[in-house]
Specification:
268 residues; 6 helices; mainly alpha
């Protein structure tokens, strides 16, 4: 009698707990389905990123300008920057193999993964071979920068020499004063100078300009070389890092060829 009474008394509580447990199970199942659907589209995003990056690779490489040290360094740097997008795309693609969605893998996807795997190996080998080319081209660019800065410096000094020669032939005081003003000599200083002192002041100003040209050329050369070698060192480090990362991906995805395809719902 007491048992029947207790059962009746606890019956609403059991119904309520069953209701909430069922609701929680339903919510959990709904969340699992929603997460599964979200993860299911991630490989599609990954393939899109991968092939978009591949198109950028072709855009960087063509038209080819081989034996052009500047273009080669710029192209290698652009390829390295695009390679990180390849890795992000590969991360999205791999998300399929950490969930039950791997059963949705089709034959075309296995073929794409094999292509991507061997593409990564080729890219890794290419980066390892291109690392010495970066060093060689950096030395070539160093020579070009030195020559370019020296030519610009020489052109300016030649112009100053011509002005110096002209100033020695000018006898008209007004022309000398106009020349002094064009050399940025202070107008008050010009007014204080006598006609006999003007030529010496002009020569002194021209010598100062020459020294400034040499200083500016040295600074420009140093800044350009520093930027060049910093960028080259960054590229070499990134090439080696990417090469070993690609080789690691290639080796890990080697088991794809050994997968028992009967475990998956593979369709043509």
């Amino acid at each position: 009698m007491k048992k029947g009474f207790l059962k009746k008394l606890l019956s609403p509580v059991d119904d309520l707990s069953s209701f909430y447990l069922g609701k929680l199970s339903g919510d959990k199942a709904f969340r699992n389905i929603r997460i599964s659907n979200i993860i299911g589209i991630m490989p599609v995003i990954g393939y899109g990123i991968f092939f978009a990056s591949l198109a950028d690779f072709l855009h960087v490489l063509f038209p080819l300008q081989l034996f052009n040290a500047g273009w080669e360094l710029q192209a290698i740097g652009s390829l390295i920057d695009q390679s990180w997008a390849l890795l992000i795309g590969m991360g999205f693609i791999c998300s399929r193999y950490f969930t039950e969605n791997q059963k949705d893998t089709r034959l075309i996807e296995f073929l794409l993964l094999k292509f991507i795997r061997w593409f990564f190996l080729i890219l890794a080998i290419l980066y390892l071979f291109l690392a010495p080319l970066v060093v060689l081209n950096s030395f070539r660019m160093t020579t070009q920068i030195r020559q370019q800065v020296a030519q610009q410096q020489q052109a300016k000094i030649t112009q100053i020499d011509q002005i110096q020669n002209q100033s020695t032939r000018i006898t008209n005081p007004d022309q000398l004063r106009a020349l002094a003003q064009s050399l940025n000599i202070n107008k008050d200083d010009i007014d204080r100078l006598s006609n006999d002192q003007l030529p010496a002041s002009i020569q002194q100003q021209l010598s100062t300009v020459k020294a400034r040209i040499e200083t500016e050329a040295a600074i420009a050369r140093r800044n350009q070389l520093q930027k060049l070698w910093q960028n080259s060192i960054r590229m070499i480090f990134s090439q080696i890092l990417l090469a070993f990362t690609f080789i690691f991906i290639w080796s890990k995805f080697g088991r794809l060829g050994k997968l028992d395809m009967t475990k998956y719902d593979i369709e043509n």
